[in-house]
From TrEMBL:
Highest taxon, organism lineage: Bacteria
Bilayer-crossing regions: 27-47
Keywords, comma-separated and alphabetical: Membrane, Transmembrane, Transmembrane helix
Keyword Membrane: yes
Organism whose genome encodes this protein: Microbacterium hydrocarbonoxydans
Native organism taxonomy: Bacteria, Bacillati, Actinomycetota, Actinomycetes, Micrococcales
Record protein name field: Phospholipase
């Protein structure tokens, strides 16, 4: 794409640089035509007029032809030819990019037609043996076609860039949605697992060890305590208002550990372990109190 953009810029710059020359073309064409006409008159004058009259006619032809010699016209044609080649190269490269992208460009044209400019290029390739007036006309045509191809290339490039940006945004949105869906599915699976009695026990063992440094001996006491209170059922409810695995009274106390306290065993466990630590120090102390008083 960078090479295409550079080629397009070169073609555009060359076409712009030729605009001044194009503005002078009608005058040059008229001068050349006038010169040809006076050339015929001069030929007749040479036969029927004195030498002085011939010299005046030659001067008149020189003045009408203007200051631009044929060599300059040829140089200008060469410059226009370079710009035309650059425009064609950029257009062909962009056409290929559009095809390879496979993108929908909407209502925009999907290809640049360089046929007319190719025709002008082929004609200008014969400039070395071409009359000056014809070369001037063909150069002007080539410059016009070059400008049109440059404009079409810029338009198509803008459409392709917009389509590429849209695809990138769509792909990013799709990837984000897929990632969010995967995370939600993983969270749902984790919740379903922890909300079983065995899953809750495994989660409690991990939390007790990682957050409080309680080993298996303390977990055995915790297991006995919460077996007695709720059988590790996160939906356990006592008419007194005690709720969940740790039988918090009222259950809303557990909101301090998470707004999902009513549906997530892990949130209930987190609150329960914190309560035991702050009130009893260890699960075994809480279990001892429960055995002695039938509550903790």
């Amino acid at each position: 794409m960078l090479q295409n953009t550079r080629a397009l810029r070169r073609a555009s710059a060359a076409a712009s640089a030729r605009s001044d020359v194009t503005g002078r073309r009608p005058v040059l064409i008229f001068a050349a035509a006038g010169a040809a006409l006076l050339g015929i008159t001069l030929t007749v004058g040479v036969v029927s007029s004195p030498a002085a009259g011939s010299e005046n006619a030659v001067q008149a032809v020189a003045q009408l032809a203007g200051p631009e010699p044929l060599a300059k016209v040829a140089d200008e044609a060469s410059t226009s030819l370079v710009a035309a080649h650059a425009a064609v190269d950029a257009a062909i490269d962009l056409n290929a990019q559009v095809v390879l992208s496979g993108l929908d460009l909407g209502d925009s044209a999907t290809a640049i037609d360089t046929g007319e400019l190719h025709h002008d290029i082929n004609a200008l390739d014969e400039r070395a043996v071409m009359p000056g007036m014809l070369l001037t006309v063909l150069t002007a045509d080539a410059e016009k076609e070059t400008a049109e191809v440059v404009e079409q290339t810029a338009t198509l490039q803008a459409a392709l860039t917009a389509a590429q940006e849209k695809k990138a945004a769509d792909d990013a949105a799709k990837a984000a949605a897929e990632q969010a869906a995967a995370q939600a599915a993983a969270a749902a699976a984790a919740l379903a697992a922890v909300n079983t009695p065995d899953g809750a026990r495994a989660a409690a063992r991990d939390m007790a060890a990682s957050q409080y440094g309680w080993g298996d001996d303390q977990f055995q006491c915790l297991n006995s305590l919460w077996n007695k209170e709720s059988s590790w059922n996160y939906q356990a409810y006592n008419p007194s208002g005690a709720t969940g695995i740790p039988q918090a009274l009222p259950g809303s106390k557990m909101a301090s550990s998470g707004s999902d306290w009513a549906t997530n065993a892990a949130t209930q466990i987190a609150w329960g372990l914190g309560y035991i630590s702050s009130v009893y120090g260890t699960p075994c102390s809480a279990w001892g109190h429960s055995q002695a008083t039938n509550w903790y």
